């Protein structure tokens, strides 16, 4: 009898589209967008999001039943994502190692969305160099009562202080309440050096203007002030990535913004996942050219 060669399992098709199930499931109940809308949003903005999101360890905010139900923050694989959600082992404090997640393309983003992901958060380091941070983020967290004007002034004051030290910075609307001031840096300094620099910078500001700024997390001390959250710069911390959707009312997104435009903004969530087209157009504009990129290193201080 003829020997029939055993058939190899078909290799996963690299460019096979990601199937999104339950496209009609409403994920944002107060504004009506569905899981399909969210997937379409990410497919549209992938070209402008991936330069910031690809090949970094990520954490996901997953809300499989929609943002109004239970959501959870996920750092590690639960085994079910797919071939475009990759693993990178990262040393833990206890000496062991854990696999973190990263994506490098649209399929990776969409496999996360298929699993109920709304938000993408990223490390300030690349997945192939996790011990070498390449950006610093000052996350401005205003106390409840503060208006957005105070946040805007705080952000531009921080920009000016950084400029005095020779550092170019960029503003991002978080899609929530605050602004992130992002400082791209060439690698070459350790996490501890980044964290110390960020802490000293925040402490100096709160010492100089104690009525406006605090550098400690305590909510009690934050009354009427802006917390300069420098803790985003510790090893293992993440910050929401540019163009990530937020699991908040109205399906807002985190958006890079030019310093000039920031002046005209009334809040930190002017764009939603309905605005992919506008976001793509903006990203190609002169004002946003080069956003988030600069050749500069952490100064000695
Ligand atoms: P906002 O402008 O409303 O403050 P934000 O994204 O800056 O929006 P923060 O509460 O300041 O929100 O959170 C800062 C970062 O902390 C988040 O972007 C995220 O990366 C991280 N974070 C949030 N929730 C968790 C969590 N449960 N576990 C670990 N890290 C978290
Ligand atoms: Mn914040
Ligand atoms: Mn914060």
UniProtKB/TrEMBL annotation:
Keywords, in A-Z order: ATP-binding, DNA damage, DNA recombination, DNA repair, DNA-binding, DNA-directed DNA polymerase, Exonuclease, Hydrolase, Ligase, Manganese, Metal-binding, Multifunctional enzyme, Nuclease, Nucleotide-binding, Nucleotidyltransferase, Transferase
Organism of provenance: Tsuneonella dongtanensis
Entry keyword Manganese: yes
Signal peptide: none
UniProt keyword Isomerase present: no
MF term (GO), any: DNA binding
Range covered out of full length: 538 to 838 of 838
Protein name: DNA ligase (ATP)
Domain of life: Bacteria
A GO biological-process term: DNA recombination
